[in-house]
Amino acid sequence: MKGLAGKVAIVTGAGTGIGQGIATRLGAEAVKVIIDYVGDPEGAQETKHAVEQAGGEAEIVLGDVTRMEDVGKIVDTAWNRFGSADILVNNAGIEHRSDFWDTTEEEYDRVMAVNLRGAFFLSQAFVRRLREAKKPGCIVNVSSVHEDMVFPGFSTYCCSKGGMRMFMRNLAMELGPLGITVNNVAPGAIITPINNSLLKNKPQLEALLNNIPLGRLGTPEDVAGVVAFLASDDAAYVTGSTFVVDGGLMRNYKEQ
Is there a catalytic annotation at residue 253? Predict the structure, then answer.
């Protein structure tokens, strides 16, 4: 895609799933990638190998987006290793199933800390460096269809993704004059480790597939292609929007 070659991207949660797919796709576009991960060094190494095999360069950083010292380290790694950064992909995310009346303060705080607080302060650190360097840039948040669509039993997750929608819209207005675009990509049901329980539950999986007009689950590559577009010069005039990648699920979803 136009204008991606030679740029530097930070991708959080890049050791597995959608983040791994995004990092690999950007590598294929000759992007230099900072692979942020927590918990699985082997997965991060797999991503690095995939990026390099695709033609890009990569650097791994162990960084928890809920820790302010790690937030600074993630951004500093891009500047120290590659001299700058142009693209931030806020992909790190978790979910926790619990009925609303049973949800604990700890569960709420953890989901919000990873999904929303982490994206907020990592974006802040990224933007501060861009302002100092007087550089334009691009932020892409991996949100979810649940920034808009109900998900009973996952109120904390929905709150975090709904917050990310307004976070993106507000930043698009505030950062536009700096030449920084901000958009969300909202995946639906994607084949990733976070959905392992769904994949093993045949009745539940079949019910979901009946709600998806395209008749299949998505892949990390489906999401990565949209992220790559938004990070490219082809999307230079695109900001403040959510791009849904769900096979039509949102338009056809019905509670069983």
Answer: no
